[in-house]
Amino acid sequence: MKRLILFIALIPVLLYLNGQPVKNTDKKAIPSFRIQLQDGKYFSSGELDRNKQFLMVYFDPDCDHCVLFVNELLKNINLFTKVQIVMITYVPLPSVKKFITQAGLNQYPGIKVGTEGTTFVVRYHYDIVQFPFLALHDMTGSLFATYESEVPTPQQLAGMFSK
Prior knowledge:
Blueprint: H1 2-18, E1 34-37, E2 42-44, E3 53-58, H2 64-75, E4 83-89, H3 93-103, E5 112-115, H4 121-126, E6 133-137, E7 143-148, H5 154-161
Parallel strand pairs: 3-4, 4-5
Antiparallel strand pairs: 1-2, 1-5, 3-6, 6-7
């Protein structure tokens, strides 16, 4: 009887532990993400071009700072020809599609924009709290800089990638 009571008492604890996110302890590596693109297809970290540096932008479509950053980035997109850009959010796909249309991102097929949904793999990997969040990785996949909320201008970012 004691074992039954102990077992019943442990069920909530086991359920709580099971629901905790698994954090990647290697914060320098690109997380193993999978995002859904506007066409319903998926894009994963395994499909990244290993011959290019990588700029990951984690954003919220309703964030004014994110919208301003994307507008400035697109005005200076010619500075990022050697950089692969992937924009990731957690919002549902209809909101992503609306953002892509409003920002004019559909004119830039090289920029991958999608949602990770409620998996929060990327968000937990980098411990993201504020938006926009930028992660800059070199061609080996090593992280060399992150920015949260207060982000550099596209010109400054391009300079970081050219080093």
